[in-house]
Amino acid sequence: QVQLVESGGGLVQAGGSLMLSCLASGRFNAMGWYRQAPGKQRELVAMFSSGGIPNYADSVKGRFTISRDNAKNTVYLQMTSLKVEDSAVYYCNAGAVWRFGRPADYWGQGTQVTVSS
Fold first, then answer.
1. Spatial CA neighbour of 91 closest among 35, 21, 40, 23
2. Which residues, in sequence order, are bridge partners of residue 75?
3. Do residues 110 and 6 make contact, with C-beta atoms less than 8 angstroms apart?
């Protein structure tokens, strides 16, 4: 059974930083992060494609950095210069294949990030 366990969410003031972690139960070529704010669709934040290329939403470029430790089956999301509009539930996404508009197969349960003004 595939498990993706997120951690690192919380409450932070605008301009602050947080790091999210996602520990996977196995090795996946594609790993990364989506988010969903209340009343909005789930959207890509940052994702390693199956070829290892990092991809970012335009809204987070220059502020967020995705990284991974393959030895630990873990993907990270370093978030800096956080904005109120970054508030959402952040979901880990992983699988063998990922493309823009087509998330990978597996999801974590999500971790809440709240940015206060």
1. 35
2. 22, 68
3. yes
- d(CA 21, CA 116) in angstroms, rounded, equals 21
pLDDT digits (tens, 9 = 90+) for 89-106: 999 999 999 999 899 999
Measured CA to CA in angstroms, residue 38 lies from 23, 61, 79, 91 at distances of 25, 22, 20, 14
Distance CA 29, CA 27 (A): 7
CA 10 to chain centre: 14
Q: Are 60 and 46 in contact (CB under 8 A)?
A: yes
Strand partners, 85: none
Q: Which two tokens stand for residue 102?
A: 């087509």
pLDDT digits 0-9 by tens, 6-59: 999 999 999 999 999 999 999 999 999 999 999 999 999 999 998 899 999 999
Tokens 């994702």 map to which residue?
A: 47
Count the helix, strand and coil residues of the chain and give each as a percent rounded to the nearest 5.
5, 50, 45
